[in-house]
Amino acid sequence: DQQVKQNSPSLSVQEGRISILNCDYTNSMFDYFLWYKKYPAEGPTFLISISSIKDKNEDGRFTVFLNKSAKHLSLHIVPSQPGDSAVYFCAAKEGTYKYIFGTGTRLKVLA
Amino acid sequence: GAVVSQHPSWVICKSGTSVKIECRSLDFQATTMFWYRQFPKQSLMLMATSNEGSKATYEQGVEKDKFLINHASLTLSTLTVTSAHPEDSSFYICSAAGTSGMADTQYFGPGTRLTVL
How far A109 CA sits from the closest chain B CA (Å)? Predict the structure, then answer.
């Protein structure tokens, strides 16, 4: 049973426009969420995180929104750049350190 | 800061041999390290969690006698794939969680591609 879901396996966006990546979760006990970016044959790179006490966290071009009632979070990238093309994973923290990862969304930013 | 290295980055071995993968936190002390496996176009699957100086905790379905994990120091954890078979071919990634202010974030290594012939 997939507790963290990313229903869009891929997304294409024009350079300069907004990229919106979505993530849904089923466990209401999750209280900390993270987004990671991954290039092929490399380890994931931490992007941004959000605690359940917040509904928004911003870091430069990246903003994460959390809707606890809908059990939904999204990552906004504005403006999108070709270098943002990668696979993006959302993750929910379970317990002290364990992460539950979604299946990833492949973002392609077109020049 | 928060750099995690893995060695080797790529290994090919014959079926039946054992392979050791090292994971090091280079600029912080990692009380907890994690080992993941990723199949093509799939999510990262947590295999086990290791705490320095104690036995690793394996996820359901992961054979602890096949995937030996040692976390001997605060900066080094090793994963040994024993008697490797072609179905063990995969991309193995480690991560490290820091202490105090870094406790909420796992930092990932670059991964190790294992191919078993």
Answer: 19
The pair of three-digit structure tokens given for residue B33, joined into one six-digit string: 């390290």
Contact between B116 and B85 under an 8 Å Cβ cutoff? The reply is yes
The burial class, CB within 10 Å (0-12 / 13-18 / 19+), for B69 is buried
- pLDDT tens for chain A, residues 1 to 111: 689 999 999 999 999 999 999 999 999 999 999 999 998 878 888 899 999 999 999 999 999 999 999 999 999 999 999 999 999 999 999 877 788 999 999 999 999
Q: Round to whole Å and give the CA distance between B82 and B19.
A: 7
The DSSP bridge pattern shows strands B10-13 and B112-116 to be parallel
Q: What is the pLDDT of residues B63-90, one digit of tens each?
A: 999 999 998 888 999 999 999 999 999 9
Structure tokens at B90: 């995969």
* Contact with chain A for residue B43, Cβ under 8 A: yes
Q: How far is A74 from chain B (nearest CA, A)?
A: 18
B104 touches chain A (CB under 8 A): yes
Any CB–CB contact under 8 A between B113 and chain A?
A: yes
Residue at A67: amino acid letter: N
Put simply, the answer to whether B44 touches A102 (Cβ < 8 Å) is no
